[in-house]
Amino acid sequence: MKKTKHLAVFASGTGSNFDAIQLAIEAGTLDAAITLVVSDVPTSAVIDKAKRKGLKTFVFDPKSYPNKRVFEIEIVEALQEAEADFIILAGYMRLVGPTLLHAYEGKIINIHPSLLPSFKGLDAIGQAFDAGVKITGVTIHYVDEGMDTGRIIAQEAVKVSDTYARGDLQRAIQVVEHQLYPATIQSLLQQ
Ligand code: GAR
């Protein structure tokens, strides 16, 4: 029998993409299980949500470690204990280092709220809004050592209406993210 794939979701904030993935699993449209939620922000909403769902969590404060290698060694241990097959970055606002990249080569996926390679880095929605582009969107890509530079897996465009305030654009992007991420993970797991 085919084994259900185990996902580790990494997030730093609200966790609306975590919610979308979790909902897709509950709805049966994503055939996977979240076996670990990792956060670098102990007070993040995503950790509260994960705990309410009874999911295993690994929370760390980067400031209490001498460097990235040391906390990533602990993350890898937690991932192995959770028997994670894939790492799903969902608003994890930190560059992944060599320790984690080598342990999960080709198995780390990220979502970014722009049409990469445009608007890399922080506040991609604000960058697009301020640039006045008429089309932006969402990218799902493999993670490498760069910032938002790995091989692109899926993209979807979002039109920036002339009437949009920044918050409207953020909501339009989120609607696309919450559909595209679970669907893309599902098709990756089928390969
Ligand atoms: C999402 O829009 C995601 O694309 C973005 O952070 C947000 C997290 O929202 N990620 C990046 O900017 C990565 N460079 P969420 O916590 O509600 O899922």
Written description of the protein model:
Residues 6-185 form the Formyl transferase N-terminal domain. N(1)-(5-phospho-beta-D-ribosyl)glycinamide binds at residues 15-17. Its EC number is 2.1.2.2. The active site is at residue 112. This protein has a single domain, classed as Rossmann fold, CATH 3.40.50. Helices cover 38% and strands 22% of the residues. The chain has helices at residues 16-27, 45-52, 68-81, 98-103, 124-131, 166-190; strands at residues 5-10, 32-39, 57-59, 86-89, 108-112, 135-142, 152-159. The longest helix is centred in the C-terminal third of the chain and has 25 residues, at 166-190. The structure holds glycinamide ribonucleotide. Glycinamide ribonucleotide binds next to α1 and β5. The site of glycinamide ribonucleotide has 14 residues, from α1 and β5.
Q: Would you summarize the structure shown here?
A:
Catalyzes the transfer of a formyl group from 10-formyltetrahydrofolate to 5-phospho-ribosyl-glycinamide (GAR), producing 5-phospho-ribosyl-N-formylglycinamide (FGAR) and tetrahydrofolate. The chain has 191 residues and is α/β, with parallel strands linked by helices.
